[in-house]
Write a structure and sequence with these properties.
2 domains; two-stranded antiparallel ribbon; globular; disordered N terminus
């Protein structure tokens, strides 16, 4: 009975641990993103240890070693948190779906470690050969899995909030569910293109001054597949931005096919504001990444905000489906 009471009122222990793990995951993402931004992914040729040690010489003084080893240490911490999260959900959480989601987080974190290890061990520097496609493929999977891990952690955290309970009593418009799914699909494709770009070191930045706004969406340098994947990323980001805007407006009751207002749930206004602010910040960071290609920080923060945008959209979509039964 105690566990059931916690589930209805919000289990503070599960919420606190989930939130802490979510915040920690952004730290892991920042460390990994910065490592990729400065091309330090192979600062150490071995794994899981770094030069055979948990405290390798030079990691506190050399930037590439610090970036890679701090990423590994932070990832280890996330693994411990994921284990604790799975155990505590097994002991305290009566909702089967939420327990399975917590187990899923652990599975993703374990998979993330394996993907990161294979990216290192199968690198061209370790195995030789003319192509590095195996290591790059695992690096791309590693990057995408990181985004999925953050997103699932955010969803688990959401289920322990009062907002999750209120959503069941305040259903969103039916069109919001469809727009949420479409937006998630677009965001995933944009992030896939971004991962292919970053892990292949194929990010193409505009040369010289911009002649018009479209210069931010159509790469002015490069050719072949590199130019194409950059175009897909930037053009896809434009489409995803439009979809997010429509999704946020639908949460506030805007009926698109008739362009009029409908009643909207009480929680929608706050969620739509978060989506709007996060999207605006992401656009700004994208512009800075193009305008300041030598600075790794805008690209790293751009990656982190992308994860926040995906997680927020996923949580908002879940809230829409949460009230679907009541609206039927």
């Amino acid at each position: 009975m105690t566990s059931i009471h916690h589930s209805k009122a919000g289990d503070r222990i599960l919420f606190g641990l989930s939130l802490f793990a979510l915040l920690w995951s952004f730290g892991v993402l920042q460390a990994g993103g910065f490592t990729t931004s400065i091309n330090a992914g192979m600062a150490f040729l071995d794994w899981p240890l770094s030069n055979g040690s948990v405290n390798p010489p030079g990691w506190l003084t050399e930037s590439d070693k610090f970036a890679e080893h701090s990423h590994r240490l932070a990832a280890t911490g996330l693994g411990i948190l994921a284990i604790a999260l799975a155990i505590l959900h097994r002991l305290r959480e009566p909702r089967r779906g939420v327990r399975l989601a917590a187990y899923g987080v652990l599975g993703l974190v374990v998979a993330q470690g394996g993907l990161g290890g294979l990216r290192v061990l199968l690198d061209q520097l370790n195995v030789g050969g003319e192509s590095n496609i195996k290591a790059v493929s695992f690096a791309i999977a590693h990057a995408i899995n990181a985004q999925l891990t953050v997103t699932l952690l955010a969803c688990v955290t959401l289920t322990h909030t009062q907002l999750w309970q209120r959503a069941a009593e305040n259903p969103a418009p039916a069109q919001s569910r469809s727009l949420g799914v479409i937006t998630l699909a677009l965001l995933f494709l944009v992030m896939l293109a971004a991962a292919v770009m970053r892990q292949n070191r194929a990010t193409l930045w505009a040369a010289g001054e911009m002649t018009d706004l479209w210069g931010y969406f159509i790469p002015s340098v490069g050719e072949g597949w590199m130019w194409t994947i950059n175009l897909l990323h930037r053009g896809g980001a434009l489409l995803a931005g439009i979809s997010i805007t429509l999704f946020a407006n639908s949460l506030n009751g805007l009926q698109l096919h008739r362009w009029r207002r409908l009643p909207h749930p009480q929680w929608a206004a706050g969620v739509s504001i978060i989506l709007a602010v996060t999207l605006s910040l992401q656009i700004l960071l994208g512009v800075l990444a193009i305008d300041r290609p030598a600075n790794p920080h805008p690209r790293t923060i751009h990656l982190m905000v992308a994860a926040a945008l995906l997680a927020t959209t996923a949580c908002a979509t879940l809230l829409c489906f949460r009230g679907a039964k009541n609206s039927a």
